Amino acid sequence: MNTVLWIAQGILAAMFLMGGMMKLFQPIEKIAQSGPWAARKPASLVRTIGVAEISGALGLILPMLLDILPILTPIAACALGLIMILAAMEHAKFKENKMIPVNLFLLVLCIFVAYGRF
Predict the structure, then answer these.
(1) Nearest CA to 110 among 89, 86, 79, 88?
(2) What are the pLDDT digits (tens) for 13-25?
(3) How many Cβ atoms are within 10 Å of 18's Cβ, its own excluded?
(4) Residue 31 carries which DSSP code?
């Protein structure tokens, strides 16, 4: 079970690290091309979400890997799960149905990691 949890953590960390880096470092106009939600939100919120996703990705891996406060790993999974719930709600509100399954898949992985690591 530990191996499966590490795989799930790795997948989540990779997805959130890539998404967070994109939101943090790319111009808002370029982000809005692939995700119209970014054009509706202030740039500061998009950047803040990017920082939160990068922090969560690091929180999924580093505490368990370094054995320093490993309780932070399931907390990071819960926080990222909350971000996915909010993202799915935003996409549903504006009928952007293509992204909702991705949000739900990542949410399920977050729940799995949080449950397995608590």
Answers:
(1) 79
(2) 999 999 999 999 9
(3) 13
(4) H
Residue 14: half-sphere exposure toward Cβ, Cα within 13 Å? 6
The pair of structure tokens assigned to 104 is: 């739900």
Q: Give which of 4, 18, 14, 8 is closest to 111, Cα–Cα.
A: 8
Whole-number Å distance between alpha carbons of 92 and 83: 14
How big is the chain by its Cα radius of gyration, in Å? Answer: 14
Tokens coding 84: 């996915």
Q: State how far the alpha carbon of 94 is from the alpha carbons of 19, 23, 47, 62, 85, in Å.
A: 20, 20, 21, 36, 15
Report pLDDT digits (tens) over 66-111: 999 999 999 999 999 999 999 999 999 998 888 899 999 999 999 9
**Alpha carbon distance 35, 3 (integer Å):** 33
CA distance 114 to 109: 9
Whether 23 and 31 have beta carbons less than 8 Å apart is answered as yes
The single-letter code of the amino acid at 49 is I
Q: What is the pTM of this model?
A: 0.91
